[in-house]
Amino acid sequence: MTRSTHLVGSWTARSPAQAMDSALIRLAPHLRRLSDGETGTLRSQWVQPTIEGLRANPDVELVAGLAFAGADSPEDYEEVPRFALREGHELRPDNLHLHYRAAFDYSFPQFLALRERYGRPDLPFQVGIPGPWELAAYAFGHHDGNVPNRLEAAFEDATVREIARIREVAGDDVIFQLEYVLPLLSVAGSPPEAQDGVATAMAAKTAHLVARCPEGTRFGSHLCLGDFKHKAMGHMTDARPLVLLANAIGAAWPAGRRLEYIHAPFAAAAEPPIADPAFYEPLADLSLPDGTRFVAGFIHESLGIDEHRELLHRIEDLVGTEVDVAAACGLARREEIEQVWDAMDKAIELINTGNDHADH
């Protein structure tokens, strides 16, 4: 099974066209899918544009966060604007503007032209979709995960609407990457005896969303520990939480929709992957549906290529097959553009690394 690389979503560029061109120059033969780099005001900084857009939402009011005082940009998770429902109001999906379709409409024609130029007519366009539960939790300050059902439902309705609109245009040429931080942190933060149940509950949220989307829609899943300003929101003591959550997502996946990959983090933003082999041992229990690729997110700016090869071999020995390689989160979180190109170069070297050491 041939390795490939995965670009989680964002990398530094002036425009979507420049972002896609710069990635294809380096990686065209090694990609299974490609986003537009998530540049610009609508898509950079992950959920922040959607949260900022709530300032104009008639159903809510701004109640906290550094931006409440007029600051230009929050510097950590606690400074992100926080909203509350206005008295007598409900959060209406029609008033939630997620911008996914607007950004897609701008980038997709450029993507089609570039993939033809680079001889990859098979390459699908990747659209990052933050989990509705995730959006509600950040926007309304429920970082403990206890999101009121009515808030989550409104964001889910708006998300399903955007996915359906995009798929009407692109059909099978688009793949939606569902992106979650709080589900993985919820599993990792639970007592060991409770982690399996928490993973099952988190996977059920994903399954509920996916089942509402058009039949045949293509998906991937990006699990994350957070990477705001290249700082993680939490950590894992070993790989067991991500294995439990990945297995649960695969087991709960609705029929008629395609789960093409699960991307898992082995670094925590600026913190490199853990060297201790015991950290990775739970990967022996990874069990994904047939046809679902496992993407190991361990490429990191602080490690040399030999350290990366050692990690790749360890992960593949435990998983029992070749895996795809990636960073733990979007490359745009790096301070230096050279680190973006370095990550892409390392990916190519890892793809070409032999696996004769193992019996796959």
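^ that was protein a. below is b, sequence first then the tokens
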Amino acid sequence: MPTLNMEDQMTALEIARRANAPEPFLIHELLRMTNEMLIDVPAYEANNAVINVTLQRTIKAVGEHRIYNQGVGKVATQTTQVQDRIAVLSAYSLVDAKMIEHSGNKNAALMSESAAIVKGMGLTQANTIINGDGNKKEEFAGLMSRRNSLADPNVISAVPNPGNGSEFTSIFLCAIGRDYFHLLYPKGSNSVGVKREDRGLVDAQDADKKEYPAYKSYFEAQYGICIKEPSAVMRICNIPRNITGDALVDLIIAARYKMPKGASTYAMYSNVDIQIKLDKAARDKGNVVYTDKDPWGNPITCVRDLRCRQMDVITNTEKAVA
């Protein structure tokens, strides 16, 4: 089994594991069942409560040569300030009191019966990370809106002239880490942004408005995303349905070479149709596309050093990016 690198160890799940926090650990584990980005991407505290302020370096200092007894000019970098806000995702669950009372372990039973709700929250979370609308106060700008123009050097089109079609998909390639791309959680949170609150025994109503005793729980996940290095997130857009596995691999390799060096983890996110094409390509391009195990021992397809993860919130009905 591969060894966990520093970024793998900083995922929300690993932080909760180290903190010996069973309930947050279970919530994170359920969330990542429907949001595979949580498997690889580390989570760090926001540096200003529920807002994270990042300085993206747009121009790097290059220095200059000098000769003996002669000085050099001052150098400086240019930065742009980015503010990323944290979204609050909430849900309530109601579980029949008799089911809980017969279980012998109230908290474990409540979590077990609420698993479907938390998994659903994972889907909403994944959708916001990818498709979030920054104009909505309750959301933040997702990766689609941050990489939405071919004028952006971090966006690559799979076809030269996509026209006005609306049956395309995308792949996101991410260099992962504190100085690259990572998730956020509120400053001071000791549960990495998630919690469950027991709201006690209440009178619930069924579909016919008949009452029954139920235990009510409140679930919450607070999260955001940060792109500290602009080239840490690359988007391959305008991918048609009929693209071949070989063409996909060529695009991914070209995009990978444009990403920053030094990250300890690289991953790519796409929907199931792209995953199937890449799995098939692994049979023919074993030197570039291959199957392996991730640091947790789960089988995974890789393109070079990119872990291929599935996120079905990335659809096949995207409009052409121009």
